[in-house]
Amino acid sequence: MSFAVEFDRVARHFGQVRAVDDVSLQIAEGSFFAMLGPSGSGKTTCLRLISGFERPTAGQVRIFGDRADTLPPNRRPVNTVFQDYALFPHLSVRDNVAYGLMVRGQNKASRRDAAENMLTLVKLDGYGDRKPAQLSGGQRQRVALARALVNKPKVLLLDEPLGALDLKLREAMQDELKALQKSLGITFVFVTHDQGEALSMADTVAVFNDGKIVQLGTPEDIYQRPRTRFVADFVGSANVLPPEFCSSLDLARSWASLRAEAISLTAPGRGQVDGTLTGTRYLGAVNRLSVRVGKTELSADIPAHAPVPAPGATVGLTWDARALHRMEEG
Ligand code: ATP
């Protein structure tokens, strides 16, 4: 397999701040790679190390096998879509898209053709004469995408590009971005703090915390088998079971995760544990029950149409043993 981007023990420090701390990763050519993590975890700095706006303090970045320190930013086959889109307000949509080609000295007719093709690709035909201010947020996002793609990058970097959109539009754009990536075959590297976005679009997800990658895997790996408590907490709503809870289940003393939707209610004494119902939250498709088992509070999602016991009732909880995943650390 050939790699679009490789990080070999890369660090980027700003004084005392270890923005990126000993990160190694490989991004397969043609894949959709998400960097997921809370604010300040080092994702944007990693993108900037790929685009060349930042240089590593230690380690090596390679782009299609070439050492990045030999490639100035403008010679890297890479382009970035920023969260705020960074469109030129005084230029038409068409000229915004064609801008990169003008800088490269392409003639006007071929620039115009290329820009119109890109606008068709992002479903904005007929919008070329408008100014950015005359577009909706979602349309501006597409212009930013067209402008980045017109230069035919081999790697597209996207820094929270859907952050400014409302939920419905975000979801529609997630599907579109994924489809566009597959049809173009370009490598996409996507930064987000939204776990749903990372899980729904990416082939591979790197979860960041404190400048380090704490887990790297497929969306299913990350969701079903979080390796640490941090990942279990950050990615969705897995129950985190402490060692004393696990030892009462005859698991060795270790931390484990168990997703709320994997737990069912049963009669007291009939499941793996009994607990006391302390609360119920209606979430639309499910009711999320809070059940206190010893010192541990568990969430259990039950179908919204199923009967909910009264608060304070003793209930049994049951799950398939395969749903419980041991974690390496706490
Ligand atoms: P966000 O989601 O908020 O953009 P992030 O995960 O992308 O966060 P980075 O922007 O990479 O995080 O920042 C990582 C850490 O490095 C933060 O603590 C940040 O304050 C620090 N940092 C980033 N750039 C600089 C800089 N130029 N000078 C000093 N500190 C910086």
What does this structure look like?
- The structure is a single chain.
- With 330 residues, this protein is α+β, with helices and mostly antiparallel strands.
- The protein has 2 domains: 3-232, Rossmann fold; 241-326, Nucleic acid-binding proteins (OB fold (Dihydrolipoamide Acetyltransferase, E2P)).
- The protein is 27% helix and 33% strand.
- It is built from 9 helices and 18 strands.
- Strand 15 and strand 16 form a beta hairpin.
- Helix 2 (93-103) packs across helix 3 (108-121), helix 2 packs parallel to helix 4 and helix 3 crosses helix 4 (137-149).
- The mean pLDDT is 91.
- The structure holds adenosine-5'-triphosphate (ATP).
- Adenosine-5'-triphosphate (ATP) binds at residues 14, 17, 19, 37, 39-45, 193.
Strand and helix map with partners:
Elements: E1 3-14, E2 17-28, E3 32-36, H1 43-51, E4 58-63, E5 66-67, E6 78-81, H2 93-103, H3 108-121, H4 137-149, E7 155-159, H5 167-184, E8 187-192, H6 195-201, E9 204-209, E10 212-217, H7 219-224, H8 229-234, E11 238-241, H9 243-248, E12 256-259, E13 264-266, E14 273-282, E15 286-293, E16 296-303, E17 314-318, E18 325-326
Helix pairs in contact: 2-3, 2-4, 3-4
Bound molecules: adenosine-5'-triphosphate.
